[in-house]
Amino acid sequence: MKFERREAPYIRPANSVSLVMLQVLVALVPAVAAHVWFFGAGILYNIVVAVIFCAGAEALVMRARGRAPAEALADGSAIVAAVLLAFALPSLTPWWVTATGAVFAMVVAKHLYGGLGYNLFNPAMAGYVVILIAFPADMALWVAPRMGDLDYQHLNALQTLWFTLSGELPSAMSFDTVSRATPLDLMKTGLAGMQTAAEIRAEPLMGDFGGRGWEWIGNFIAIGGIGLMLRKVIRWHIPVGVGIGLLVPATIMYMIDAGSHASPGFHLFSGATLLCAFFIATDPVSAATSTTGRLIYGIGIGLLIYAIRRFGAYADGVAFAVLTMNMLVPLIDRYTRPPIVGHGPEQPG
Amino acid sequence: MKTLKQQFAEGLWTDNPGLVQLLGLCPLLAVTTSFANGLGLGLATLFVLTASNALVSATRSLLSAEIRVPVYVIIIASLVTSVELMFEAWFPAMDRSLGIFIPLIVTNCAIVARAEVFASKNPVGLSILDGFAMGSGFALLLTGIGAVRELVGHGTLFADLGMLAGLDGSPGLELFDGGFLLALLPPGAFFCLALAVAAKNALDLRSRRAHGLRRANPEPR
């Protein structure tokens, strides 16, 4: 007769890895819908390309490692990484650029480090940084939001699909007529060009807090993220930490000199701040694991985002901030390890 | 006493200064953006390493232990200076392309390491062979990484190889347009080296398995 072997923990959590990943994907749906509404179907194509190449690369690596591809594909983490990568890309991105990032994310950032649970770096951000460095021109092709009073050329769904496949615009359009600076780019170049923050905010592309369109997508990302928190998929420490780390220096600088610094609201609703706080930094594998550690990790990311936006060469710094803090996670975990019951406060070492 | 074959097997493979000892990584990572650059610096290093091994070995009985390292440095520095002058005189294009990394051969720890580990304890003939074997291993690695980075990053191979003959530029093979820029940037150098080390380990593992030996470190599950 066979007995079921019982080992601790006896009370199993209701969340499995695939269930967590599924909830993350569901939480991203409103934001993707808003992205399609404001910037066209491009993100959908990017998601399809990223998912195909992430899943394909993961299956090949698993085979090369002598393990069943289904084992890794079933947990859905590759799909989440693919969707986050697609979210980081401009809606007009040729497929080979997305594919490069996806393959790098899976093969180098994830599986060369040992696969899910072992990867030191957030795969989506590692893949994004690689294509940001390798294809700088393609990564600058952001389009203007579709708003009635903004007079920019827009590609329809079919033209966008053709661009994704071939990297060519319709003959009547040029890169200058379809692409526009992102709000962070506008702010950065404007401030460097001696404009005041208020003058930059008066541009037609700017909305109440961040850029028009962008801030709405931010709202939907926040809704999805708060939903994840309520369902206890993510905990509040990292998002709050990122908020503190970014907003405290932003507020201080804004109060000192409002003319040459963007407002805290602008920082919160621009670029990938909210996506980072709720979806990227909260990656359970590459983030810190203790409660204090998570706060430190989040605050560090926020501070780095502010520093890169304010002093760096790039307009946004989320990917670099996350990767840098990923490197510090082992250190953070070591110094914030909660004491083991009955052993007193233990010295690290 | 090692045989000639053993010495070359060590220099080129089992104890390769770049792949196994991971010495001299600064030039290895910095100049290997093309086949020609890698080969140029590889040959310069090969020459310095062989000559410094010969000189250190020849003077080994005169050296007292306390001042041996400064003397190694003087020997290596004078050799590097002469190499630099030769490059300036005969291969000016190569000299411009490699720039500061020719004088920096002085600080290549692979050279000091061979002087200390081998040349200071062995006769001149053996030391010359050791320098040549180790230098060849290093030069081959530099050239190989240079070729891969040039091919992936630029889509060309052997471009500007004429620099080694004192000519001022030659197109080389143009295999495809464009390329993956990352390979030419510093991260690309780290990735290429890491992949080369991994490939070497994988090949060693395979041959050890073929000989029926069990692996030392099982993969974490």
Structural classification of chain A: mainly alpha
Name the strands of the widest sheet of chain B in spatial order.
1-2
* SSE arrangement of chain A, N to C: HHHHHHHHHHHHHHHH
Query: How would you characterize the largest beta sheet of chain B?
Result: 2 strands, antiparallel
Give the terminus-to-terminus CA distance of chain B: 43 Å
Order of helices and strands of chain B: HHHHHHHEEH
- Rg on CA atoms of chain A, Å: 21 Å
**What is the total tally of β strands of chain B?**
2
Please, how many domains of chain B? 1
**Total number of domains of chain A:** 2
Question: Greatest chain-chain interface?
Answer: A-B, 10 and 8 residues
Q: Compute the number of helices of chain A.
A: 16
Structure characterization notes:
The complex is a heterodimer of chains A (349) and B (221). Chain A starts with 16 loop residues before the first helix and ends in a 14-residue tail after the last helix. Chain A folds into two domains: 15-180, no CATH class; 182-336, no CATH class. Chain A has 349 residues and is mainly α. Chain A has helices spanning 17-39, 42-64, 69-73, 77-88, 95-111, 123-134, 157-166, 175-178, 183-192, 197-201, 214-230, 237-256, 264-269, 273-280, 291-311, 318-335. Chain B has 221 residues and is an all-alpha fold. Chain B has one domain. Chain B is 62% helix and 2% strand. Chain B has eight helices and two strands; from the N terminus they run αααααααββα. A two-stranded antiparallel sheet of chain B has the order 1-2. The termini of chain B are far apart. The model of chain B has no long low-confidence stretch (mean pLDDT 85). The chains are: A mainly alpha (349), B mainly alpha (221). The A-B interface holds A 65, 100, 108, 114, 118, 130, 133-136 and B 180-182, 185, 187, 191, 219-220.
